[in-house]
What we know:
The structure holds 2 protein chains of 2 kinds. Chain A has helices at 48-56, 104-114, 119-132, 148-161, 178-195, 206-212, 230-235, 240-245; strands at 6-17, 20-32, 37-41, 63-68, 71-75, 80-81, 90-92, 166-170, 198-203, 215-220, 223-228, 250-259, 263-267, 270-274, 276-277, 286-291, 296-297, 306-317, 322-328, 331-337, 348-353, 359-362.
Amino acid sequence: MTSPRVSVRNLTKIYKTKRGSHVALDNVSLDIDAGEFVVLLGPSGCGKTTLLRCIAGLEEPDAGEIIIDGKLVFSSEKGVYVPPERRDLSMVFQSYALWPHLSVLDNVVYPLRNTGKSSADASVLAKEALAKVGLGDYSARFPGQLSGGQQQRVALARAIVSGDGLILFDEPLSNLDAKVRERLRLELLSLQSQINFSAVYVTHDQIEALALADRIAVMDVGRIAQVGSPEQIYDYPNSRYVADFIGSANEFAGTVKSVGDVLTVETAIGELEVGNFHSDLVAGQPVWLVVRPEHCSFDGVGEGYNRFSGTLVRTLYLGASRQHFVETAAGELVVTTQTPIAVGEKEPVTIGCAPQRIHAFPREV
Amino acid sequence: MSAAAGASTANRSRVSRLKLTPFSTVLWLLLLAIVVLVVYPLGIAIVYEFENIVKSFGEITNGPLSRTVPTVLWNTAIVVFGATFFALLVGSILAWVNERSDASLGFIGQLLPLCALIVPPIAGVIGWAVLLDPRAGLLNFPLRQFLELFGITSRVGPFNIYTMTGLVLITGLYTVPYVFLVVSAALQRVDPAMEEASRTSRAGPLKTMMRVTLPAIKPAFAAAILLGFISGVSLFSVPAVLGGGARIDVISVFIFRLLQAYPAQTGPAITLSIGLLVMVQIMLLLQNLIAQPGRNAAISGKGFRHTPVRLGKLRWLAYALAVLYLFATSVLPILGLLLVSLQPFWTPAVNFATLTLANFNFVLFENRQTVSALINSLTLGFIVASFNMLVTGAIALHFNRNGVARRIADIFTALPATIPHTVIGVAFILAFSREPIRIYGTTTILLLAYIVMTISYAARASASAAASIGTELAEASRVSKASDLRTLWKISLPLAMPGLVAGWIMVFVHTVGEVTASAFLSGTHNPVIGRVLLDLWNFGNFPQVAALALIITAISTTLVGIMLFITRRGQRTATS
Ligand SMILES: Nc1ncnc2c1ncn2[C@@H]1O[C@H](COP(=O)(O)OP(=O)(O)OP(=O)(O)O)[C@@H](O)[C@H]1O
Ligand SMILES: [Mg+2]
């Protein structure tokens, strides 16, 4: 069995401020395998940056352990703390963090010189790295003379040049406009398949997360809510929080009527059959039902589908798809379709959705 | 593993803890020495002079001083209030014009806050004295000739600088930059959307200013007033030059006279110094209360661009005011000094045939006192600026910005700024003229006093130089496998260099132009420019005074020019 490149065990980080202490990470554990691209996804302030900085050594956690390539770099119990310069990793910052007084080449050479490479070797390697990110001709320029996208490429070159094979990214694309962001996203992926580095990538853009990740770790305030492949996270969220955070979701309250192969749930729009549920649900328990807009439909109502009626309130045309707002007894519901529908606004509609597309999560009352 | 763990403990301080490395130990020791330099003289002076202090209460309340002290306090109050009022008026109008109107002052706006650096106040006030001396004033003389055309003849006037009005106005001139800076900063932070919302709610520009802008920056006004008070009560050079002729004593000069009297009246001097110190501390406390963040919730902290208010014809008035101010603080006094310095002796009727450079020659090469004063002041300026910038620069760059170590260091370095120079002068005299540390009359005492007096400037300059770098650049260096000290050397220091050089120049210029502590601590054995200027003035060697004042003005102006050049270039590279 190969051991993971990075192993984070029970990490806790508490910030002490004037107004008291704030638990930024609460007992977080996460493994990153060799060549794996792990995305940390979560709302603002949930502790993504903090986790990344703890791995980098820029922040000292209060409890737990971090192991990088089998080497213990932090342990609260053993009193081990290895400073950032002696951890074999590199980092790409949201603000690029290029040094304005050094040329592009010198920026990329810098990490190599710090590890004792001769200046000739370092220069050759740095030029290779710059060529890989498509900036071979820019080595004599200064960061101030580059566009945002080019600056972030330099930062990328600086991160891959040392060849550690572990790169931490903190929202590297969020300062760029949408087109550049998409292109860099693709380049990042092809770079990763070329040199096969492991990545921990922080973002709060779910599209970016789904596109880049081998695995996504969805974070809630200070803890990891779910880890899994993009498909697992999207199709099989393990909590209402994750379902809500990734994509959009219709939610309605109900009460479990009976538990069998499928769950039968009593709701304001009638009895619904639910295919996704945790086995410890019992009859009589209040639940939230969650279903994604694109998993509901007006026409393709197949065998065994749940069916309920409502009134079409409004349709928004979004280019690639259409978003329909339907008033039902359980509140407003959104349905997304690829093709136009034959129903006009204010007219009654019937909605169908497959039981295996509906998720049930316990509801506190 | 254990080797890595052992070596790593040394680096912990960087991240969160207050652990000592050899480098930080040195920094702490230096800081401690500076704190001792503030606390020790004051403490010793109070301990040794305790009986005299107690006795002086009697002298002040119903003894020989009971007549003079109230007058002195009253004079001080008039000067301080008058000067602050003048500065508030001129400074905030200029700030508003610069920040909000289409008469943006551009380069002049940048120069305004630097006036007191470009022309040291001591040179400025001497310049005004030679312009508006009632008899020999270089401006008064042509004015009298002009008035004679209308049949008005007089041997004196029409203006007399040696009056309360003169004292107030000249003090006010040098208080304007404080107000300008504080009000400008506040205006920059007011969200223009607030003002635009008022304009779209049908309020005109004037109403908007009165109802929206001014209330939003009220705390800044309060802070500016207090700053004006603090600088006013501590200002020494202006009353020292003008007060003699006007027979008006203010507190800082009065304390000086008490110590110069024979026998020296140390008791009242230190009692009044402590009073001064307490007053300043109270004002600082008030200012901190007012400057509480969150008190001005309307201010949103981003740098916005405003649609400027159209001034129309008034624009020229605004320009005129700004130019007039620059003339009053720099151009006119320099011209006055120049004319006097080129004359064999000071006469108001300038005979251009007799103009000579002899005074410069004499001051620069022949007069032992001025030559050694120049050498001493420049050497001291160099040492003080280098030492202070080195220490504060290392602190600002080495200690993590939000760390405990940095906060403690900030408190230490900010402490001396809260003590008026007069008080430092008095405490140093009393503490260092006796065993165990007997250094009164040496250049060492001046060196120590200057270090204490300018460390806060240096710390502020270093902090802003360090803050302009941003933490991520240093962090990027750490994850690029550079150690702590290597990051400091390769990344932080080069990036902070322009700011540090600017700070160096500021400290140097302040030291060379310093008058207060120089008057107290310098003498024939350790002359410095500030003291020698006052002496020459009091002995009536006016052409030499003018020449010496011009020389330090030239040095200051050149250095400030270099500083502007460096900081502007720094801004360009940062934003391009
Ligand atoms: N130096 C600090 N001192 C005190 N609290 C901090 C500090 N840094 C972060 N925090 C707090 O810790 C929490 C987590 O912060 P963190 O920067 O990790 O969030 P994030 O998930 O990266 O958010 P974002 O998406 O906005 O970047 C936040 O509530 C933040 O306020
Ligand atoms: Mg973040």
